């Protein structure tokens, strides 16, 4: 069986702790007007094969707002890639599923990343997922969609998901590491480690509340050759997000209130026009139709 998927249009990718980009700048600087699209070969059996612009295997949050509990992506998501160009083999049988992908990492058009994931689903309501991905070479190219250090990193996740009648709960731990590499001026291996809890509670068939809490820490200091992966070398941050939502058939409306606190920062690398604010407070409203 041959299947295909295409996703097209204008979009934004709002994320905590980063400046908000216009729709025009987002589309032109990230993944274009067709951000995802692939061909899938699904013969009989447990395996399927994909080729094209694929959604990442990494992390608990997806790329686009309509796919997620919250309007904005979180601070852990900022360390992950989003869309990969490449090949993927997927497997599913019984309580086990998995995937292995050869791709271009942070949309670099340099094919030197391997990503893999394995999911165990002991019951219909619970699953545990292990993810590993990384650059097996060196990529000295960078762009808005391809941050230099993150594109040369290794990324690991452990993700637990519970899906109940009224409550959906997702928690995950994440470790990233950028190995020492003179070619891209990384004088000392630099890492981030963090965790997040996300949940949605459905009060009625039409009204729900989503929430997310996160903490992210980075290692080192600039004098010893560590690089900046967050808000200055060795900085850390936490965030809270609340997203009340109303949905009736295809119509939905949701508001969002978010707060980010950055600590141990470097002036100029944080928030605001001058990069000196250590807190970010946002409010957002999103509404539309899903069909």
Automatic annotation (TrEMBL):
Task: Tell me which InterPro entries the record gives.
Answer: BBP2
Q: What name goes with this protein?
A: Porin
Q: Which organism is it from?
A: mine drainage metagenome
């Amino acid at each position: 069986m041959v299947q295909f998927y295409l996703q097209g249009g204008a979009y934004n990718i709002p994320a905590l702790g980063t400046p908000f980009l216009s729709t025009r700048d987002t589309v032109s600087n990230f993944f274009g007007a067709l951000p995802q699209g692939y061909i899938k070969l699904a013969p009989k059996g447990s395996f399927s094969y994909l080729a094209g612009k694929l959604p990442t295997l990494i992390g608990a949050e997806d790329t686009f707002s309509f796919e997620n509990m919250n309007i904005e992506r979180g601070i852990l998501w900022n360390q992950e890639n989003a869309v990969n160009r490449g090949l993927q083999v997927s497997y599913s049988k019984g309580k086990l599923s998995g995937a292995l992908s050869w791709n271009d990492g942070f949309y670099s058009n340099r094919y030197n990343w391997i990503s893999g994931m394995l999911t165990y689903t002991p019951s219909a309501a619970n699953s545990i997922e292990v993810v590993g991905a990384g650059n097996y070479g060196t990529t000295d190219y960078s762009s808005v969609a391809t941050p230099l250090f993150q594109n040369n990193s290794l990324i690991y996740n452990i993700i637990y998901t519970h899906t109940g009648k009224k409550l959906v709960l997702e928690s995950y731990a994440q470790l990233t590491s950028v190995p020492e590499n003179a070619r891209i001026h990384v004088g000392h291996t630099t890492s981030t480690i963090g965790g997040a809890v996300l949940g949605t509670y459905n009060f009625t068939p039409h009204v729900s509340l989503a929430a997310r809490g996160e903490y992210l820490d980075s290692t080192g200091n600039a004098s010893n050759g560590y690089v900046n992966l967050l808000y200055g070398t060795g900085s850390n941050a936490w965030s809270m997000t609340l997203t009340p939502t109303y949905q009736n058939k295809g119509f939905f409306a949701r508001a969002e209130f978010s707060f980010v606190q950055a600590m141990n920062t470097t002036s100029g690398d944080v928030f605001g026009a001058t990069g000196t604010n250590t807190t970010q407070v946002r409010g957002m409203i999103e509404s539309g139709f899903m069909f």
